[in-house]
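Reply to dn_fold:

You asked what the input looked like. This is it:
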Amino acid sequence: MQQLSAVIITFNEEKNIGRCLESIKDIADDIVVVDSFSTDKTSEICSKHSANFIQHTWEGYSATKNFANAQAKYDWVLSLDADEALSPQLQDSIRKLKSGNNIAFCTFNRLTNYCGTWINHCGWYPDTKLRLFDRRKTKWDGLIHEKLIFSEKIHAQHLKGDCLHYSYYTTEDHYKQLEKFTDLSAKHMFDSNTHPNFISFYLSPAVKFFQCYFLKLGFLDGAAGFSISCISAYGVYLKYHKLKKLLQAK
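and this is what came back:
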C-alpha cells in the first residue's frame, strides 16, 4: 500500500477548507496545510480534521506550494487548492491506485461550480490537471497560473472522477479575483517589455468572448456561461489597460 500526503495552501478559506479536508480524509495518510496567516476560522477547521497546520509567509503561488510539498511526510503528493474537493468517484480511483506498488503521476478532470452552476463548457471543462505526483521529480513554477515542471520524462495516468472546484460564490468574487490576476499579468508583461496596441485593447477582448461563448459553447451554460464569457473578455482588456498605466508611469 502506497502512502500519500495531501498538500493544501490557504488564506482565509473557512468557506471551503472543511469540504476539501472531508473529501480526502479516507485516502490521505498525511494532510499538510500551509497557511499564510489567516484571520478567520481556517486554523480551527484544520485542527478538527487533524491536519498538520503550518503558518508560513506568502511567497507567491509556486514558491509557497514548493515549500508546502517539502513539509509532506511522503513523496507521493496530492496537491489541492482549498476550494477544491474530490468527487466520490475520484476518491475511489485514488484508493485503488494506492493498493499498487509504484508511485504514479496522475491527471484528473476538474469540474467548476460557478455561482451555484456546474460549468461544462466555456473552456472550463474538462480542465485536466496533473495533481498527483512524486515530489522528488517535479516542482511548481510560474507567477500566476503555476504549473509543474519535471526533472525527467514522465508518463501520467488519467483517473476517473472529477475534482470539484467551487470557484466563485458571486460574480463580485469573480471580479475581485480578476483584479488580482490582472495586476500580476500586467506586471509580468511589463517586466517582459510587452507593449499593447489597438489589437490588444479592442480585438483581443472580442476574440476572447467569441471563443468562450460560441466556439467553446458557453451559451449552453446559460446565464453563467454568458457571465463567464463577458468577465473573461473584460479581463483581457483590463490587463492591457493596467500594462499601459505601468508604461506611462515609467
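The helical segments are 17-24, 42-48, 61-70, 88-98, 171-191, 198-215, 222-249.
Hope that clears it up.
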